[in-house]
Amino acid sequence: MSDIGTEAFEACYAALPEARAAATFGSASVARCLLAGVGSRRNPTELGAGVEYDIVLTILSTDEPSRGAGLGDVVKVTAYRQTKPVAYRIVGRQDMGGSIAFSLEFQHGQ
Asked: How far from 106 is each of 60, 87, 89, 98, 100, CA to CA, in Å?
């Protein structure tokens, strides 16, 4: 019996090639990742208008590197049809029964 997170990851990876990505956590590469895209929404504050980004990278738990995947670490992500990786900072993490979803933000803010 497999984990629901693993089954969901495998189904999405097979059905949605445009959601595929590769990532580098420190010196460890993870070739099979899911990245739905980089979403943004306007976030007005008392300091003025800003933009809040919604970036979630999902990997299998078995592919998690031993170093470089903690909160505050930088991960370099190469999205589908992209040639250059983009550096993001890990700001959240959710273990989902066989897969891990990392919440990311741009490395140096916006």
From this structure: 22, 7, 6, 26, 19
**CATH class of the domain whose range is 4-106:** mainly beta
Summarised one tens digit per residue, pLDDT across range 21-68 is 999 999 999 999 999 876 656 667 777 766 666 789 999 999 999 999
Domain limits of the chain? 4-106
Q: Secondary structure of the chain in the HEC alphabet? A: CCCHHHHHHHHHHHHCHHHEEEEEECCEEEEEEEEEEEEEEECCECCECCEEEEEEEEEEHHHCCCCCCCCCCEEEEEECCCCCCEEEEEEEEEECCCEEEEEEEECCCC
